[in-house]
Amino acid sequence: MNLHKSIIFDIKRYAINDGPGIRLTVFFKGCYLNCQWCHNPESISPQMEKMYTKQKCIGAKACIEACPNDALMLTPDGIKTNKELCKLCGLCAPACPTKAIEISGESMDYESILKIIESEAVFFDQSGGGVTFSGGEPLMHSNILLTLLKECGQKYIHRVVDTCLFASKEVVESVAKETDLFLVDLKHMNDEKHKQYTGVSNVKILENIRLLAQLNADFIIRIPLIEGVNTDTDNLQKSALFLSQLNWERKEVNLLPYHDTGKNKHIKLGSTYNYDGMNEPSAQCIENAINIFESYKLNVSVGG
Amino acid sequence: MNTTQTSPERSPYSEGNYYSEAQKGMNERIKRLRELSVNTEPSLSIERALIETEFYKNNYGKYSIPVLRALNYLEICKQKTIYIGDDELIVAERGPKPKAVPTFPELTCHSVDDLNVLNTRELQRYTISQDDIDTYAKEVIPYWEGRTQRERIFNHVPKEWKVAYEAGLFTEFMEQRAPGHTTLDGKIYRLGLNDFKKQIQSEIEKLDFLNDSEATDRLEQLKAMDISCDATIIFAQRHSDMAEKMAETEADAKRKAELMKIAEVCNWVPANAPRTFWEAIQMYWFIHLGTVTELNGWDAMNPGHFDQHLAPFFEKENKEQSLSRDEAKELLSCFWIKVNNHPAPPKVGITARESGTYNDFTNINIGGLKADGSDGVSEVSYIMLEIIEELHILQPGSSIHISAKTPDRFLKEGCKVIRQGHGYPSIFNPDIYIQELLRQGKTLKDAREGGCSGCIEVGAFGKEAYLLTGYLNVPKILEVTLNNGIDPVTGKQVSIETGDAKSFKSYEELYSAFIQQLNYIVDQKVRVSNYIDQMFAKYAPAPFLSVVTDDCISKGKDYYNGGPRYNTNYIQCTGLATVTDSLSTIKHHVFEKNTINMVSLLNAVSNNFAGEEILRQTIVNNTPFFGNDNAYADEIAVGVYNDLLAAIDGKPNTKGEQFYLNMLSTTCHVYFGKVMGATPNGRLAGKSISDGTSPSHGSDSNGPPAVIKSLTKLDQTLSGGTLLNLRFLPSLLKRNQDITKLSQLVRSYFALGGHHVQFNIVDSATLYAAQKHPEEYKDLLVRMAGYSDYFNDMNEDLQQEVIDRTENESF
After folding, report:
1. pTM for this one?
2. Which of A183, B22, B145, B248 is surrounded by the fewest CB atoms within 10 Å?
3. CA atoms within 13 Å, Cβ hemisphere of B316
4. Percent of chain B residues topping a pLDDT of 70
5. Within the 743-802 window of chain B, which residues sit less than 8 Å (CB to CB) from chain A?
């Protein structure tokens, strides 16, 4: 992967749920995992993708005219893309007058990312905020990530990395040296279930969480609460037990109640999704989770 | 952007709009008084007009104008109906009862038609009985025909002004209401009216009739001021007498004691300086009523830094244990309700179209800096925040003032009130507005004692007449430029010819035509504003307002005639973002990228983009717009802002001082939008233009930090106030840490040089539900541009405007 460029799918300002203070969150595109519930499905593929919002389409056909591969067609159901013909050249998006077609993902070099981060300094200064690298999986882009982390460190900008820690020991160690706070996702303690829902094993993930604790890195654990997937008492107890045994000063766990807003984006991507058996957690379910984590002396809160 | 729609069925509580909890914390007395105030419908009282007409019939020509005005005020104070309601602790009303609004026929005499409309219209209704309308027609209207200030003004305005005014290129504040924006400093808590009378006497004794050609005028002015002090004292004394009488027959011992106390307080103030917290509030209230009975200029009257003025009384009495915190809060709550009892006098014509509200814009400044530069926050400031949250009423408006010295606790408590979604308090930055005032030549001490009144305009409290003269429709000036001086809405020539826009070869050529048009229109506006200023100085002086404004007494001059220490005229420029985005569209698409040609663009604009939706969408979605921290658009905005400054700043007014730039819009951007066709930025005909210095609706898509950065590229210290509306949905402010982050966002804006910001905390589902079921959302207050109003009191256009404001949800 290019040392100086990476594909970014969003940069959010006034991010108030991604670490302390007012933050700027940089979203890297591409993830090793493929969580079925992912609310940002466009973050999974490391390639640029086309997103189409039917409600915005006024049938101008400018995209059809712009397409060199004749991949687009206007149907009663809006613009349809022939995926075999589409080369993802991206010419349709700027031609669209209403931004009904957008290309998710922009190749950015680290200087331009850094410039945007630095331009937010006043908000960081006034709030004790900083930059958050999220994704996708930022550790998938460890070269550019490390460069950015080092540069930000030299400029006294607080650095958060939001990760699932599915990465090599070496990457985690080097990133940990340049990170002020990790937000670590923990999805499931049962390896089979983890594979079933995310596509990968949790062994490396759990090892890396232990590693962060050994390295005395500062981190917060974030657990998506998906009723039907990981909210059973057994899994929650195992999660709590695992976390309580870590040599970990902060002991902070954020529970993130699942919601199905990802649906909307799946439709835009034209991708399939299956949310069967996944439900927003009930109040009782959340209450139960809180009780379990509290019983293991963990500082638990909802949201993050 | 991920926009979460909230179902209207969800309880308001869960959305952070605690409407149902409005009464929490109030004691029984305050609940009853609030109930009465909120449920009483505004009505018109013809009492003042009758007294005044009778007085003018018998006395016009017998006295100098200032003395005539003072005697007229005295007559009203002597004759008007006095009201002391059950439960009241702070007493006196401008009308005969709560929410009864007098008329001011000497300025604008409402016709029978006007009165019928006011009585029957759905919004901002003022009830009046048929008997009263008949009496008005018989006794009041015939006398004032041809004699009102409004007729005097319109008889003399030049044709060029009139066509531009009627086209909606600008408004004129003073055509039917007296110039206002009057705010008091701390002197009335140190001096009683008897002390002012002594000052007046001593100035009279100093007059040099042999060497000063104006000595006789000064004498008349000072005599008038003296009479107006007597009038106000008599007005108070009548309340004292009435309370004493009521006490005699009062069976309830507790109420009897309260009435005796009211009698004592009204016997002491305003003749003498207040001794207690109670007297201090009542003192202010009598002064307030005096000034709004005499003339009721725009933006009523304003106590300024009320918490700072009251704090010494509170601290002393609280320490001596003669006044508990709860008692202080009760008295202040009584005051709050008194202000709410006073809707603005009803307007007519264009002014009614651009300012449709009961709000009379008393804006209480809380926090901020003291005159010595130290932090002004006190326990009284916190009490006031509690009252704002609990009472949840339309008036008075309130603002918190956050300097770098202001403790975070105060800002956060303020943000918690903002979270309730009442639309106030708004937030001001003293560190910037003090610089604005210093730039205008105020001393440091006077600047620090200054603040913001009405909506967002700055002034040196108690020492300045800072007159808003009217709004300038900057996008309309561009529209006229693109049509060679013709108003495309009416086809009339309303301005000068600056060339056929279709033949312009460069952006610079277009921009220079725009600047020529701007200068021409500003000159028209200034010329007439100066003339009207003089009309007020001559025919409608305000002797009582002059008593309480430094240095009217020592100069022997009226408030409207250069008496105050500082005399400023503002022109409020509206629609910066609409103009910027339109210019950006032309520059970017026509002259740089050649993506659209000028002829097709102008044709599309004049056809309101009919059949040109693709073109319109291309513009809306693919043009650099203001409010996104986009260098291209922001540079255009800075250029326009600086050129507005160049056109206005420094124009002489009639008092040897000058005009300054203001960037306020209040609700005028709605009216201005109505008189306009489509604009090149894709805005359709009739839709609102942008408000204050806020981005155009829906064009800011990079979140509040980007808006803030765009706005702070303008050097805000060069104006007399800018205005930023940000709308937040409740879900962004659920947790305490969200409050902290909101407060940090405010600090960031202010660190970068922002003057003012206000937040609407509502979601569109709530607003749509309120449109559908107005009865269930009676107390839904929303912040408009610079003040709060009831959503249900707004017309559909205004409601839509609130809904359209970009929802800053979940970035």
Report:
1. 0.92
2. B248
3. 10
4. 92
5. 744-745, 747-748, 751-752
> What is the model's pLDDT at position B124?
83
Structure tokens at B563: 């008496």
Q: How far apart are CA B206 and CA B194, in angstroms?
A: 19
Closest to B337 in 3D by CA, of B123, B99, B102: B99
B611 interfacial to chain A (CB closer than 8 Å): no
Note the pLDDT tens digit of each residue in B721-753: 999 988 776 667 778 888 999 999 999 999 999
What ipTM goes with this model? 0.91
User: Shortest Cα distance from A127 to chain B (angstroms)?
Assistant: 5
Annotation: CATH topology of A49-104:
Alpha-Beta Plaits (3.30.70)
Contacts B429 to A, Cβ<8 Å:
none
Q: Rounded to whole angstroms, what are the CA distances from A232 to A227, A255, B111?
A: 8, 14, 75
> Which one of A58, A123, A261 has the shortest CB-CB distance to B705?
A123
Per-residue confidence at B14, pLDDT binned at 50, 70, 90? very low
Q: Where in chain A is the domain with CATH 3.30.70.20?
A: 49-104
* CATH, range A5-46+110-302: 3.20.20.70
Task: List every span in chain A annotated with CATH 3.20.20.70.
Answer: 5-46+110-302
- For residue A271, what pLDDT is reported? 85
Pairing of the two strands A299-302 and B43-45: unpaired
Question: Which strand (E) or helix (H) includes residue B746?
Answer: helix B736-751
The beta strand positions in A16-104, using DSSP E, are 23-28, 49-52, 72-75, 78-81, 101-104
Closest Cα of chain B to A192: distance in Å? 33
Q: How far is A6 from chain B (nearest CA, A)?
A: 21
Positive/negative CA dihedral, B287, B291, B296, B297: negative
The torsion of the CA quartet B365, B370, B373, B374, rounded to 10 degrees, works out to: -100
Q: Is the pLDDT of residue A40 over 80?
A: yes
Q: Is B235 left (phi over 0), alpha (psi -120 to 50) or beta?
A: alpha
Q: Name every chain B residue with its beta carbon within 8 A of the beta carbon of A262.
A: none
Q: Which residues of A touch B704 (CB under 8 A)?
A: 13-14
Burial of B691 (0-12, 13-18, 19+ CB in 10 A): buried
